[in-house]
Amino acid sequence: MKITRWTGLMVCFLGFSIQAMGQASSSQYLPGIKQELLKEWPKNRSINLVFHGHSVPAGYFKTPVVNTLGAYPFQVLKSLKEQYPLAVINVINTSVGGENAEKGAERFEKEVLTHRPDLIFIDYVLNDRGLGLERAKVAWEKMIQMAQSKGIKVILLSASPDQRVDILDTKSVLDQHGQQVQELARIHQVGFVDSYELFRTQVKAGTPISEWMSQVNHPNEKGHALIATEIMRYFK
User: What pLDDT is attached to residue 184?
Assistant: First the structure.
């Protein structure tokens, strides 16, 4: 079959459109923020990163110990400062231990958007099991849409592990919620970090899940580093 130049252009255009409708590319999602991080004084400004979620981003390790500097939000800050030494970066943690996405959505405007973030990370999958998929979806979409209405970039995260759930079971409730969050990232064209898959890959490679955990449902510092390293792909 002969393909005309016009047909070829249409195919390219359609291919681009389909790609554009997908989940945000880690290499292309934050060009404006990365440019701001490179600016020198006096042309630079403070960059505000807000981490919103439950006990894991809040820094709970072995309850009630909160290891703030070992948790992934501050591991990300450390890596960012190594990569962007001239930048002024604020990490603001609005996470609350034990909270689910509905509670997070209720306080999103007053406790998250009030910080005028450049970028918001949302991490609630681990605690959303009690809500069920439909209620969780409504809450996640509410937060995404509120952020996007203000022109704020968003990166969603799937769950970190719970050792009571077989991480190799791809049909578990944690996987179902993670897949839903990934689909929301695709629909709304925001970033997505598949934390759960990072840990699953390590287990498949032969490292027991216990080596990445401080207690049954909280990663240790090494586990948090897995998540932080994946987040940093958005800043390369």
Answer: 98
